[in-house]
Amino acid sequence: MEQQMDAVVLYESWFGNTRRVAERIAEGLRAADVQAQVSRLDQVDSNAVDAADLIVIGGPTHAHSISNAATRIEARHWAEDPEKQLTLDTDPSTPGLREWLEAAEPSARRFAAFSTRADLAELLSGSAAHSIRRRLHKKGWTVFSPDESFIVPVSGDVVEEQLQRAESWGRLLGSELSLPTAGVLAG
Q1: pTM over 0.85
Q2: d(CA 157, CA 89)
Q3: Mean pLDDT over all residues of the chain?
Q4: Quick one: how far is CA 56 from the chain centroid?
């Protein structure tokens, strides 16, 4: 009998697009017969994370990297600007991805990193996923898959094409996780 694999998709999201991407990644994992939970970082069930065979973690790209206190304040100001038509998905005073990564214990657990970013060349926008990978790899975590970035608009909802890419990536992760020699990459 084949063992059920478990994954947890953790995310930080300010305007909802990264949450939508995380949810579709989880749908893809489930389509590959992986039990997948989705959780905002500030609401994570540490027991589920400890029991998972794979942690998929992501957040928005802010100032070429992961969010920080200053970029969260900027997100609040953007939401207050009626011309931007943005609604906050999370209270900006809530600890985010940066704090979660700093608190993460050294481990050999497998992870995959993703980010959302503006529709610019990655050289110009940066990538939160790269920062996630570097920080977790430094703590001994095992890179399971190459980083993935999804394009989101500065205002408005993420387009269906990007959500389909997220679901496909989740399905790929789930398929690879189910292999007897599940892929592991060097950091």
Answers
A1: yes
A2: 12
A3: 85
A4: 6
